[in-house]
Amino acid sequence: MCGFLILLGFSSCNEQSPIAGSDLHNDTINASVITSDSVQMFLGTSLLNNKPTASYPVDLLLGSAKGYTSSTILRFSPDNLPDSSGYEILSAQMILQPKRYAFGDTISNRLAFDVFSIAKPWTPSATIDTFQQAGFLESVNHGTFDGSIALRDTMPEVTMDISTSLIKGWFESKVKKLKDTSYNTQSSYAIALVPKSNSTVIRSFARTKQVVDVATNSKSTDEAISIRVICKKTNATKNDTIVVKTAYHGSFTSDPSKTSDAIIVNCGTGVYSGLDISLQQLPTGIAIHGAILKLTLDSASSLRGNFPIDSILTAQFVDSSYGNLIREFSGWSKSGSNIYEFSVVNALVESLLRKSRVGTLKVFPFIDRDRTRLDRLVFHGPKDPDPTKRPSLRIIYSTRPKP
Q: Is the pLDDT of residue 6 over 50?
């Protein structure tokens, strides 16, 4: 029995091996360990992107910093707009609810963006490609914000002026639609918040907020972004206040990550990486008792905002021979270490061995993390100059010799 334990790399014959299969008899089973340090198991990496849509339930990101540009598009509901003409628009202010997350230069903390109306229809399934298409935005600027939003435990609302001509057009569209149901309003009531080049930070804004009814102490959810319009009906003696709320909205961020040997993931932009694996040098007819994958974070190349760096990764593998997802794997960084360990990837190895022995493991940010941050995590790739920082795969397997 001692010979078997030494083969697995344990130093004491009196300790029970934690590896599955440790109680197998050495007269019938040959157990071995193979690692990517001794055999080439990683072929390369690829940079992928699933382009988040506007319907994804996340905070809104807005601004420009460190090569990233986050723009937001909003479509407002016409429900609260008046159903008759003859209103003078006296003023309009957009109200936004900032959150604490900031990415970029939080010292100068300068957020600058312009407001444009949208010329083409869009839906909650829009992606950054929709936003970047030619002619999507009107050329007239309907408002500008340029300032610093202080980082506090409780973030107060911020307001900015919106041109009255924009709101007047919305009033008119509502009346026209009521008179003629065929009137096209698909691109009406929509604006884009586009960051300016002098912005030094990307800030997050809430899509919804909780509202407490003091009388009943009940809570409800309301839109966090709205436009407060002060207007006056012809011949009226007092002004009216109308609050126009958003119907749906989304943020789209251009990602400067480039294809390289590194493994790159970014929650806010939907970027993830493929790690190409080959197990062609493993023997046939083997049983897998354990498989551990380790990735090393490249701290110098990674970027994060003012939140702690995420300590969890997710990986997925699709078995092409069966056409289905084997399972999701989770990797953890323990005690602030740069090593992220996927402690049980047996199913990945077994699936690869079924057929071609070559496949791609997709590495994501934590799968349950809402896209509320732009943190870019970069992990050393299989061709890194430092062999100790390359991805590591350790496989414990056994073979049964012929009688």
A: no
